[in-house]
Design goal:
By secondary structure, this protein is an alpha/beta fold. The protein has three domains: 2-60, no CATH class; 77-246, P-loop containing nucleotide triphosphate hydrolases (Rossmann fold); 251-320, Helicase, Ruva Protein, domain 3 (Orthogonal Bundle). The chain has helices at 2-14, 18-34, 38-50, 62-66, 92-106, 108-112, 132-143, 152-156, 160-176, 187-195, 199-215, 234-237, 251-262, 269-278, 284-300, 308-320; strands at residues 76-79, 121-126, 147-150, 180-183, 221-226, 242-246. Helix 14 (269-278) packs parallel to helix 16 and helix 15 crosses helix 16 (308-320). It is globular and about 60 Å long. The protein binds adenosine-5'-triphosphate and magnesium ion. Adenosine-5'-triphosphate binds next to helix 7 and helix 15.
């Protein structure tokens, strides 16, 4: 794979195609990242960033190389991510697991010397708004890889036969473009197994998906996320190296979220703990929404510090609007 990138580098240099040269250099950086050579990757990215802009064109942003083109463009969305572990609240066990997965992937060479590979097929499950998608972005951000999200809705709007072909195209992309591949709403594949009109055809899609997971040796990280883990059968579970639960936040975690979101605007720890009681039973996403509403109120009032009242009002307001995710 690296040989392909090196060839592309040389070809684009030989033909004076600066844009392709830049793109290939960034692909090389991504490939080094995924091999665990983070420092080399950073150094390559710095060199690219220092390259002068050419032909009146602005230098391509890093996100450009991650953005899929052609036939994959409408089923695969991608980009580099800024999210880091400090941006997500996780229970101890899940944090430890993600940290471990990150370090295993950073030390891939060392593991492979002993005949084992890093765990890289993860199944995230849990209630809506509890951090599954965010955690995939954090993995990508921490590892310096683009997050490539597979849009299952787009995948399924076509003929089933075409769906299997598209899935294959995505898996073919994985070794070429190292990244964190997020199969979001993954259950739409598994769920469809029983209730599709043409069950035989759908089974072929699911079987193709499972076979593709088995056959994938790309080194890319594969994350499948679902709200309905109970719908998945054993054949699906077996394919994953780790099953990761995302649970609804407890009171302490809600307080932590409030501090993360508005601690820099003057909310104190005591206030956060008190407010968290009001939001008990909410998801992280609901509480984050209340924080954003409170910030809006603060900004409109031309203040630069948030009051406990701003947040109480926002919570009350959201409660009135009957957030579905609330108990
Ligand atoms: N664990 C968390 N820590 C901090 N913020 C969180 C957490 N979970 C969710 N959020 C906030 O809520 C938003 C939505 O969460 P996210 O999209 O990750 O939920 P999800 O579990 O993927 O939900 P769904 O099942 O609906 O896809 C995040 O962008 C973030 O602002
Ligand atoms: Mg999600």
């Amino acid at each position: 794979m690296k040989a392909d990138i090196l060839k592309l580098l040389l070809q684009s240099h030989a033909s004076g195609d600066e844009a392709s040269f830049r793109k290939a250099a960034l692909q090389l950086a991504a490939s080094e990242s995924s091999a665990g050579h983070l420092r080399v990757a950073d150094e390559i990215r710095e060199i690219v960033a220092r390259m002068p802009p050419t032909g009146g064109q602005r230098p391509r942003a890093v996100i450009d190389i991650a953005a899929p083109r052609g036939e994959l463009a409408d089923i695969l969305e991608g980009g580099h991510r800024d999210e880091r572990l400090r941006d997500i609240i996780l229970s101890g066990g899940v944090r430890d697991l993600l940290l471990r997965v990150i370090s295993e992937n950073r030390s891939r060479d060392r593991l492979e010397r002993f005949g084992v590979s890093p765990r890289r097929r993860l199944l995230f499950h849990g209630a809506p708004g509890c951090g599954k998608t965010l955690a995939a972005a954090v993995l990508a951000g921490e590892m310096g890889l683009p997050l490539m999200t597979v849009r299952f809705d787009a995948l399924f709007s076509r003929f089933l036969g075409a769906t299997a072909v598209q899935l294959r195209a995505i898996f073919a992309e994985m070794p070429r473009r190292p990244g964190v591949y997020l199969f979001d709403e993954f259950d739409s594949v598994a769920k469809a197994r029983g209730d599709a009109q043409d069950v035989g055809e759908m089974n072929r899609v699911v079987t193709a998906f499972l076979q593709l997971i088995d056959a994938d040796v790309s080194g890319s990280i594969l994350v499948a996320a679902t709200n309905h883990v109970e719908l998945l059968d054993r054949a699906v579970f077996r394919r994953f190296d780790a099953i990761v639960p995302f649970e609804k936040p407890n009171r302490a975690q809600l307080a932590e979220l409030l501090l993360l979101r508005v601690g820099n605007l003057g909310l104190t720890e005591d206030q956060a703990v008190e407010l968290a009681t009001e939001a008990e039973g909410w998801s992280f996403a609901d509480a984050a929404r209340a924080c954003d509403d409170a910030i809006r109120t603060m900004a409109l009032a031309d203040r630069v510090a948030i009051t406990q009242g701003d947040i109480v009002d926002a919570l009350e307001d959201l409660k009135k609007r009957e957030l579905p995710a609330r108990k």
